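[agent] plan:
  1. take the single chain provided in the ticket
  2. run structure prediction with default settings
  3. attach structure tokens to the ticket
  4. add a short note for the reviewer (M.T.)
[agent] executing step 1
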Amino acid sequence: MLAALLLVLATAGTAAAHGLGGKDAAFVAGTSGPDIIPFLYLGAKHMVTGYDHLLFLLGVIFFLYRFKDVALYVTLFSVGHSLTLLLGVLGGIEMNPYAIDAIIGLSVAYKAFDNLGGFRTVFGVQPNTRVAVFGFGLIHGFGLATKLQALELPQNGLLINMLAFNVGVEIGQMIALTLMLALILIWRSLPGYRRLSTAANVLLMTAGFVLIGFQLGGLVYGASA
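[agent] step 2 finished; step 3 output follows
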């Protein structure tokens, strides 16, 4: 897990690596009606390769020990990003992709800082974790929407295709979540878990700030171009 986080730090420069491009973009642009199965696949692929979304999820579940708590927080996150994904694309709400992705990077740093007890130690308060996860879920949904808004989506069958894409996102999320939970459970059984968990969250927070930096760089460069 630590190696995976280091890999994120090493490759964070490709900030749009999980955007829709190449054959996927060509397929979406060429769609002329409802096409459920391909959009399911695209949604699942986007989430599985969406390292910023997965890093936030990792932070959310890191110290959750009961299945009902995992289910609750993942549901809050899913409802949040489903709402804004559909609202952004179907409602035509456009936002700067660099600014949104910078906030997504902030969500990663925020959750790691929370896991380290930073809010209680530094500020003497503990923010409502449920509200934070749902709120950041809304931001993550707009992040998903900006990837689709960058393409010329045909209006014919758009609703069905977006619903299929969203279901695909949830499928991809469950696949990734299952793998992460399995790795965390194995890790918890090993000696030194608590000590290494602190280091992992420091690294996770660093990854979040790296993502913020690259996205803000893109925002400034895009504004000056």
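[agent] step 4 note for reviewer: The radius of gyration is 18 Å.
[agent] ticket updated
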